[in-house]
Amino acid sequence: MTVLNGVTLILDIGTILLMVGLAMVTDDLRKRGRDDDKLFFYLLFIAMLMSIADIIGYLSAGKIFYGARWQQTFGMDIFYMTFMLESIVWSYYTLVRFKWRGTSYSGGIRHLFFYLPGVVIMLVTVVNFLTGWIFSVDEADILHPGILYYPMYIIFSGYFLHGFFVIAKYRAVAVSEGRKRQVIPMWIFLLPIALGFFTKFLLRGVSLAAVCTAVTIAFMHLGSMNEISDTSLKEDAI
Amino acid sequence: MSMINNLPDPVLATIYLNAITIMLLVGILVLYSRLQMHDVIEKRMYSIMVWMMIFMSMSYIVETCLDERVLVLAPQGYLIEGSIHDIYLNVFCLTWILYAKYRMYRKIDYIKRKLLVYCIPFLTLLVLNLLDLFIPVFICYGDDGLMHVTSIYIVQDIIRYGYMFNTILQLNRVKKQGITVRFFSVTPLLICTVVGLVVHVLTPSCYTILSLGMAAGLTLLYAEVANEQSFCDIDTKFFNRSYLNYIFELVSKGRYSVNSIMSFKVDDPGKMTEFSELLRKQLPSECEPVRIMQDEIIVLSKVDERAPLFMVTEDVRAVVDEYNESHTDSPMDVKIGTRIKKRKERGTGFLLKEVEGYL
């Protein structure tokens, strides 16, 4: 294993630890049985799956044992599938969590169409090791993008951006109502994801997707708790 | 970009890991500064720990660059870097100990009284860290042009990590005794720090694991503090109104039941802290005390019979009388009321009806 593969492994284990910790911390809140709490738990769980798939992919990269390439491709397929699922759940979570005026999260058919491309890409990633439509890995361990590789990035970037748009809108409404301190600064969300994409495309070696997603989820939770804390102080007037 | 890509793998790996750590910590720092906390001292201590961790991560990058000869300094430069790194870590551990002790007792006077006891080992270490610049105590400059640790460096590690883990365990034990800190636990911090430290010890060449583990631990500690901050009242150490809303949600979904409510109204809101101490000792463990007004506490209970409720209220009345006998100059007047759910009252109706008058 190279040093950089080791770093990926460490970051993925760190991601799993952080997500398990957050799941423990939010245990009491989940008992409320709210939809947004359930979706938040799914976000944590999917981030863990992403890290596990990443670990499988990296551990089998460049290995010569029987089935290593299949295992690597399978690990990467699961990774891309979970990444797409994470972006869909993130987008839906923001709709449910930040119900700003004029927005309804129970959009029914409208949302079905909105999330359809993502679901299709997820299904394609499941069978990618047979078709190679998303990517394929050759004998020299080099990844070759398939016909749907770049559309996949565009679609899941779209879902992530949609989530940010919902939060930005919520923030704008909150600021106009004089609740500026309660809501989370946008750059707190954008920085980790931007850093993840930047390193993925421009630098060699490690995949920061899982850890950057985990950091964003952690910030999301902490921002929400700040909001509750601020509200509770004002309501109590104690 | 090509310059970064041409760096040796260990340097690149350290930069990656520390970039993530610093990003996480800067985000935490910004969010934490926006958290509305009752306790400014606790907030400052936590912020110092996060700053120290940020400086440590920066120091790890410089250290790896020196080790891989990407950056070359004079021998004094190596020693200064090593000493500063140790000073950051020692200040972090000392701040953690003070933070944990403060959380246990919530009294700044106690910390001031014991400050010297906690500080002496760390002040000694800090003096030795400064001496490192002139005499090889913990670190030295080797013939190979690199910095090395001496054989007694382990003593420093044992002192700082020993103290740190001891206080984490103490805090874990203390928090289990209080009913109000149900939303606060140091276990996630403990797990992350232990994993970070174990990996750090097993793979000494990979410096950054410890700071990454501690950064994750500090993140989870913040989450715990935010939980507690959101649902607990700092004066009485009882739950607050947000917690009552939380209970409403649980009851409405059939996940929790409230069968009786006791209410305690104190004439002087300034006596609430003292009264809460008296009340805490009389309440059975399954009761949920909530401070809903400046001068009023309600206790939610699953008890559905009048006799046990009556016994609790009588006990409270007795301790209040006892208090008044010993504080004749400033007695407290407490009005006590109880209400039991009737058979036909189902769902949240009972709780709503009883509490809506206060909210």
Quickly list its features.
heterodimer, A: 238 residues, Rhopdopsin 7-helix transmembrane proteins, B: 359 residues, alpha+beta, 2 domains, two-stranded antiparallel sheet, 9% strand
What is this entry, summarized?
The complex is a heterodimer of chains A (238) and B (359). With 238 residues, chain A is mostly helical.
Account of the 3D structure:
The complex is a heterodimer of chains A (238) and B (359). With 238 residues, chain A is an all-alpha fold. In chain A, 75% of the residues lie in helices and 3% in strands. Chain A has a two-stranded antiparallel ribbon. Chain A is globular, with a radius of gyration of 19 Å. Chain B contains 12 helices and 6 strands. In chain B, helix 2 (9-34) runs antiparallel to helix 3 (40-67), helix 4 runs antiparallel to helix 5 (108-131) and helix 10 (272-282) packs across helix 11. The mean pLDDT of chain B is 82. By secondary structure, chain B is an alpha+beta fold. Helix content of chain B is 63%, strand content 9%. In chain B, the strands form 2 sheets. Chain B has a 4-stranded antiparallel beta sheet with strand order 4-5-3-6, sandwiched between helices. In chain B, strands 1-2 form a two-stranded antiparallel sheet. Chain B has helices at 2-5, 9-34, 40-67, 75-105, 108-131, 153-175, 187-202, 209-231, 241-252, 272-282, 306-326, 349-355; strands at residues 139-141, 147-149, 260-266, 288-293, 296-301, 334-340. The chains are: A mainly alpha (238), B alpha+beta (359).
